[in-house]
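User: Could you check the structure of this?
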Amino acid sequence: MTDPAVERDAAESASAFSHPPVEPDASAAYGEHPDQVVDFYAPRGGATGPVPLVVVLHGGAWRAPYDRGHVTPLADFLARRGFAVANVEYRRGSSLPHQGGGAPVAGRWPETFDDVAAAMDALPRLAAGALPQADVRRMVVTGHSAGGHLALWAAARHVLPEGSPWRLPAPPLLRGVVALAPIADFAVAEELGVCGGASAQLLGGERYWDERLPCADPAALLPTGIATAVVQGREDIVVPEQVAEAYVAAAAKAGELVGLTLLDGVGHFPLIDPAADACAVVAEEISQLAW
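Assistant: Sure, the predicted structure tokens are below.
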């Protein structure tokens, strides 16, 4: 007998991935590797004045088969809402199955983090050249799933442990973060087997867990002082709501209020699907921080 939750997830995934890729208006490299690139989408409707810049970090369990292409419809959707958009690519795990078989390895240490940090640092300069309408003083970073993790992490670099190569001396100039079904608490994600143990793979394996977790886990990097909202589907079987709830609880324990919007009847993929009502909720959460 087919599980209704699995059927829902498959249908939602098929809808989200049914949209054709949308070509960017401009692209710029932030490094020499082919994956070190940012695609820019100009606000639709002929806006000439400064508009907020939304930085999109795609998901896909930090694994190579999933690149920024699948969120180009989301980038276009946000551009049609009047935002300037930067869709960031970064180095991910090997596309070859890991030793012993199974899914491709999740992420690279330290390259995945190197790239997100470098891209965020380069964005003001790159946007000025590629997308003059973008107001980098009104920048919101958003990300889905593994990209939601990276969005939260990018906003927390100033609270990384001393000596971390990615640590910033002051909070990043962000209006806020909107994390979509983020892998936001690694311990809970591993307990639930999220994405086949991708969190541990991202850190390089279980033997590095204790050493690297304080530099990578958003639930350990609190409080940030950056306005943060989490949007989560209650029917999500890919990254269950317990992960988001654990992050919000960790923030509260650290003295920080994180907004949590739980959407009934919604799974993992409608949050990035322009055809889904949930995507409009995401745009509204971004608007509340950006404008």
